[in-house]
Amino acid sequence: MRKDIHPEYREVLFHDTNADVYFLTRSTASTKTTREYEGQEYPYFPLDISSASHPFYTGEQRKTANEGRVASFNKRFGAFANRGKK
C-alpha cells in the first residue's frame, strides 16, 4: 500500500435521527463534529435513515395501490372525456 493516500479509518458514531439509535462502527467518513458516547469522544455522523428505521428492515409495509396505471388514469381524468361530446 502506498503511504499518505488513504483516508483515516477510525471509529465513528452514527446517529439515526428518525429512530434515535446510535451505531458505533469503523469508517472513513469525514466529520467536523464530535459527540461523547459511553464515556469516550467520537466523530459524529447523523443519518436520516438506517436499518433501525427503514421499512424493509423493520417489517413495516406501506400499502400500495392495487389498481393499474390505466385504471388510475381513467379514474382521475375520465370525466374530461365526456365533456366534449354532446
TrEMBL record:
Part of the 50S ribosomal subunit. InterPro entries: Ribosomal_bL28/bL31-like_sf, Ribosomal_bL31, Ribosomal_bL31_B, Ribosomal_bL31_sf. This is Large ribosomal subunit protein bL31B. It holds the Pfam family Ribosomal_L31. Keywords: Ribonucleoprotein, Ribosomal protein. One of its GO terms (molecular function) is structural constituent of ribosome. The lineage of its organism: Bacteria, Pseudomonadati, Pseudomonadota, Gammaproteobacteria, Moraxellales. HAMAP family: Ribosomal_bL31_2 (MF_00502). The gene is rpmE2. The keyword Ribosomal protein applies. Belongs to the bacterial ribosomal protein bL31 family. Type B subfamily. It comes from the Bacteria. One of its GO terms (cellular component) is ribosome. One of its GO terms (biological process) is translation. It comes from Moraxella cuniculi DSM 21768.
